[in-house]
Design a protein that fits this description.
mainly beta, seven-stranded mixed beta sheet, four-stranded antiparallel beta sheet, 11 strands, 0% helix, globular
Length: 117
Amino acid sequence: QVQLVESGGGLVQAGGCLRLSCAASGTIRSITTMGWYRQAPGKQRELVAVISNGGSTNYADSVKGRFTISRDNANNAVYLQMNGLKPEDTAVYYCRVDRRPAGLYYWGQGAQVTVSS
């Protein structure tokens, strides 16, 4: 059974940096888009960044210029470099891996990111 294992969350002061990693514990065939989402307390889960299997990226306006998404296709891994963190970035961050056929995807278990002011 495939699991997505996340790491790299934690507590950081405003202006600091963190790097999230997400790797599949098993083989996922026909991966398409990989991405990061986040959910703050009392709010809906929202898209942070996604990257296609061709390397095209898309970011939420709130993180553009501060966060960078990347992927390692050989290891079925996706990363999120977060710079210039703000208290409003505090949330549980989830990775998601989509695969063919369309509509199939896996979620990671979530990684807490807390930014203090």
